[in-house]
Amino acid sequence: MTPVKQKIVATSGILTTALVWGLMWYPFRSLNAQGVSVPMASLATYLITIAAGLTLFFKLYRRQFHFEPVLLLLTLLFGWCNFSYTMAVAEGQVMRVLLLFYLSPLWTALLSRLLLHEHLTRRGWAVVGLSLLGCCVFIYRPGLFAGELPLSQRYEWLALSGGMAFALGNVISRKSHGIPVPVKSATVWFGVALIGACSLLKSGELPRMLDIPAESWLVLSILGVVLLCTSVVSQHGLSILPATQAMTLMLMELVFAAASAYLLAGERMSPQEWLGGALIAGASLLSGGMSRPASKPQPTP
């Protein structure tokens, strides 16, 4: 395949991923309305993803997998990231969830400084400043200075914590150079399934998995296969395209989500939310090249 064709395929893969995640709220919200809760849907969907992924890529995982303790942490972080995002979009305003989640570049910048000792570039400081300004504009409400919480709904805290988990997972993943990308990708599948199972055990809903109707299992199976495909094509795209270009394409998720939320759920954002969202999206757009590696100490003669 020529470089031009490779780039077209990679671009299509990233855009497809953005489209899938921009629309993912709708089937989970619909299933929830039909009595298949988000934990039930998450567990079923990702068990199907795991089964399909291990079947298709068994030889690859057999060759590349080797256990490292950090995989457990990545499994929990990436699992919570996806699980909390799905919970949030199933019960809250889609664009509000996405924009709170897209504060992740801010957390990435701070965590890279803290854990990797990387220094922020001018672009990095711009990302921090824009993210903080966008966050302040987005969450401001008249009673904020009277002691009210800036985020009052559970889904808002789920979205915020999901973005933090995503940022911390990415920072730890960058630090774990020896773990192959396909193995890191699989931590998402196992993580969501694990957290979904724990949530169902805690609520006593696990036996209800047997009561999921056949038509719902069909939807869940399609979701599982789609998520597997997006995992593969997005990793392929990220391995070919420059980080800045990939982030620009991924921001199309906001466009797809805004359009689908308006058309399918009648959700609208206020001018204040649009302004805060634009600042947060702008910060994400600048997130490539936020920091530079810590300088290595020079050996003493």
UniProtKB/TrEMBL annotation:
<feature type="domain" description="EamA">
    <location>
        <begin position="156"/>
        <end position="286"/>
    </location>
</feature>
<protein>
    <recommendedName>
        <fullName>EamA domain-containing protein</fullName>
    </recommendedName>
</protein>
<keyword id="KW-0812">Transmembrane</keyword>
<feature type="transmembrane region" description="Helical">
    <location>
        <begin position="185"/>
        <end position="204"/>
    </location>
</feature>
<feature type="transmembrane region" description="Helical">
    <location>
        <begin position="7"/>
        <end position="28"/>
    </location>
</feature>
<keyword id="KW-0472">Membrane</keyword>
<feature type="domain" description="EamA">
    <location>
        <begin position="14"/>
        <end position="139"/>
    </location>
</feature>
<dbReference type="InterPro" id="IPR037185">
    <property type="entry name" value="EmrE-like"/>
</dbReference>
<dbReference type="Pfam" id="PF00892">
    <property type="entry name" value="EamA"/>
</dbReference>
<feature type="transmembrane region" description="Helical">
    <location>
        <begin position="40"/>
        <end position="58"/>
    </location>
</feature>
<feature type="transmembrane region" description="Helical">
    <location>
        <begin position="246"/>
        <end position="265"/>
    </location>
</feature>
<feature type="transmembrane region" description="Helical">
    <location>
        <begin position="70"/>
        <end position="88"/>
    </location>
</feature>
<feature type="transmembrane region" description="Helical">
    <location>
        <begin position="94"/>
        <end position="112"/>
    </location>
</feature>
<dbReference type="GO" id="GO:0016020">
    <property type="term" value="C:membrane"/>
</dbReference>
<feature type="transmembrane region" description="Helical">
    <location>
        <begin position="216"/>
        <end position="234"/>
    </location>
</feature>
<dbReference type="InterPro" id="IPR000620">
    <property type="entry name" value="EamA_dom"/>
</dbReference>
<keyword id="KW-1133">Transmembrane helix</keyword>
<feature type="transmembrane region" description="Helical">
    <location>
        <begin position="124"/>
        <end position="143"/>
    </location>
</feature>
